[in-house]
Design a protein that fits this description.
The protein has 9 helices and 2 strands, in the order αααααββαααα. It is mainly alpha-helical. 6% of the residues are buried. The structure holds heme C (3 copies). One heme C binds next to α8 and α9.
């Protein structure tokens, strides 16, 4: 008889406790429990998919050679981590700093304004590796991406990209070629996705906000 009463007593206390606890308390307990597992579920929705692979996030900027301290940019080929320093041909290559002397300057990245350098014909890059006479297929189409909040809107210029790049460099792998079809966020760009596939690596870095956020917001029409 006694062995039955004690579990029964526990069951009654448990049910009573459930009954007394208001529904709001029960609900409040759930998100709190989830918050314990994930560090910032509310503020960082864009970063959430990355939580499965924290090492990648931790190394977000190791590839980002254009974000290195100024003194470490444009090193000689022997020190750039790309060329083989033991190859006797490596020191024969013209060091970037020497090659860049007559190019237009910028304030970031490798400190060259490549758009201006190309425009002024200071360089004449091949559009096709094998065909020296191939001409760039330049598309003059600006895409404006409205940005929520106070940052100016983003203007993506096709002309300044297609002067160097082929459509297939971006379409369809990085961007679906349809205005507004692609969700783009600053978090992705900083992680080396979307615009960040190139910007910060081979094109001007993310620190140059105004080059992308170049269209001031039109002030809301004033009621008269
Ligand atoms: C550097 C990357 C890049 C290159 C290179 C590029 N595009 Fe795009 N393209 C974009 C982006 C970004 C968008 C905007 C997508 C969005 O708004 O979601 C876009 C949009 C488009 C659109 C949709 C326009 C609209 O109004 O819906 C077309 C068409 C297009 N591109 C064609 C081309 C063609 C043709 C080429 C080659 C001559 C080219 N693109 C090269 C990045 C690129
Ligand atoms: C496939 C590589 C690639 C991608 C992806 C890419 N860019 Fe570029 N972008 C370049 C290169 C290369 C240049 C020219 C070199 C430079 O300015 O550093 C350039 C130049 C620009 C310029 C011109 C800057 C000037 O001085 O006039 C703007 C603006 C720009 N990019 C914005 C964007 C935006 C916004 C996105 C994403 C929607 C994007 N780019 C995606 C490679 C890329
Ligand atoms: C390479 C181009 C580029 C550069 C450089 C850049 N942005 Fe952006 N930014 C974008 C694009 C593209 C979007 C997405 C716009 C949209 O919603 O379609 C964006 C969105 C944003 C947003 C809206 C919220 C979000 O995360 O999507 C903010 C805020 C913002 N950028 C701030 C900045 C600041 C601050 C800088 C400089 C430190 C900067 N951006 C540099 C391209 C750029």
């Amino acid at each position: 008889m006694r062995t039955v009463t004690i579990p029964l007593l526990f069951a009654v206390i448990f049910l009573a406790a459930l009954f007394i606890a208001s529904p709001s308390q029960i609900h409040a307990a759930q998100p709190a429990g989830k918050a314990a597992e994930t560090p910032q579920p509310k503020d960082a929705p864009a970063a959430a998919p990355e939580k499965a692979t924290p090492p990648k996030a931790a190394g977000a900027n190791t590839f980002n050679r254009l974000m290195k301290p100024k003194s470490e940019r444009n090193p000689t080929q022997a020190a750039d981590g790309i060329h083989d320093p033991d190859n006797p041909g490596t020191p024969q290559l013209q060091p970037p700093k020497e090659a860049f002397t007559n190019f237009s300057n910028s304030n970031a990245g490798n400190y060259i304004n490549w758009v201006q350098t190309l425009k002024s014909n200071a360089i004449n890059p091949r559009y096709d590796r094998q065909d020296p006479n191939a001409e760039a297929l330049i598309l003059d189409l600006d895409i404006v991406r409205e940005v929520k909040g106070s940052m100016p809107d983003v203007v993506y210029p096709h002309d300044r990209h297609t002067a160097w790049l082929d459509c297939s460099n971006c379409h369809p792998d990085i961007f679906i070629p349809e205005k507004g079809k692609n969700a783009i966020s600053m978090a992705q760009i900083l992680m080396g996705q979307k615009c960040g596939v190139c910007h910060g690596k081979v094109a001007f870095p993310v620190s140059e906000c105004r080059l992308c956020h170049s269209k001031p917001k039109t002030p809301a029409a004033k009621p008269k």
